[in-house]
């Protein structure tokens, strides 16, 4: 059951925008719970790959999502009891997650699991439809973005640091394709809601972005009766 008293900060935005890092730091600063909704779709994609379920098999993917044995323990992500923190961050799984997330039955299967994260003292949730579908009652909604070129640059640095051999042009193309797919899908498309505050981090550091969100949260709190 959702605790209706638990406040929610919803951060939505495109792939590689840095919203996960910002959301996690905001949650830590406020001592709130944190939901990385994208991790659930990545875990679904990884579980599907391991079970031999194709990404165009809607029924098979829905069953994978319903039976997903995933848990988050002190920053470690587990799938079927085994650590999957790094495995779900590969480009291939990220691409698969984007395809999986476009399927309405899969999203429905994961909806209750996401809403269960709303517990006191509060929740910071990041994803593509946190403010529009999962937590439409969120007290603060943020649409966090950056230019595709900046996002590709950031992602390239992350992958190079992990020892992966990938060109920035390929990453840029992948990001542009994901943006188009996430924005054009009929189910929970990626959009900036009218009541969401726009945060463009193209020229900002992570610390600056975190301070901005925390400042907005203080404003929201101070304006409540």
UniProtKB/TrEMBL annotation:
It holds the Pfam family Cytidylate_kin. It is an enzyme of class 2 (transferase). The keyword Nucleotide-binding applies. GO terms for molecular function: kinase activity. It comes from the Bacteria. It is found in: Cytoplasm. InterPro entries: Cytidylate_kin (IPR003136), Cytidylate_kinase_dom (IPR011994), P-loop_NTPase (IPR027417). ATP binds at residues 13-21. The keyword Cytoplasm applies. PANTHER family: CYTIDYLATE KINASE (PTHR21299:SF2), CYTIDYLATE KINASE/PANTOATE-BETA-ALANINE LIGASE (PTHR21299). Belongs to the cytidylate kinase family. Type 1 subfamily. This is Cytidylate kinase. It comes from Chitinimonas lacunae. The gene is cmk.
């Amino acid at each position: 059951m959702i605790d209706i008293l638990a406040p929610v900060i919803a951060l939505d935005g495109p792939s590689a925008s840095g919203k996960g890092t910002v959301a996690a730091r905001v949650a830590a600063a406020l001592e709130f719970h944190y939901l990385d909704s994208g991790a659930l779709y990545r875990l679904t994609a990884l579980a599907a790959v391991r079970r031999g379920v194709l990404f165009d098999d809607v029924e098979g993917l829905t069953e994978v999502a319903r039976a997903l044995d995933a848990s988050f323990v002190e920053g470690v992500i587990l799938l079927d009891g085994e650590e999957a923190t790094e495995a779900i961050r590969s480009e291939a799984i990220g691409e698969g997650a984007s395809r999986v997330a476009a399927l309405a039955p899969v999203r429905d299967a994961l909806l209750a699991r996401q809403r269960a994260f709303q517990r006191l003292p509060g929740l910071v949730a990041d994803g593509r439809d946190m403010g529009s579908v999962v937590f439409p009652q969120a007290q603060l909604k943020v649409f966090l973005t950056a230019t595709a070129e900046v996002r590709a640059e950031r992602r390239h640095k992350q992958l190079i640091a992990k020892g992966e051999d990938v060109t920035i042009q390929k990453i840029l193309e992948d990001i542009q394709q994901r943006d188009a797919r996430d924005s054009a899908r009929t189910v929970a498309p990626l959009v900036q809601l009218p009541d969401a505050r726009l945060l463009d981090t193209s020229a900002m550091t992570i610390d600056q972005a975190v301070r901005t969100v925390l400042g907005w949260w203080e404003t929201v709190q101070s304006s409540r009766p």
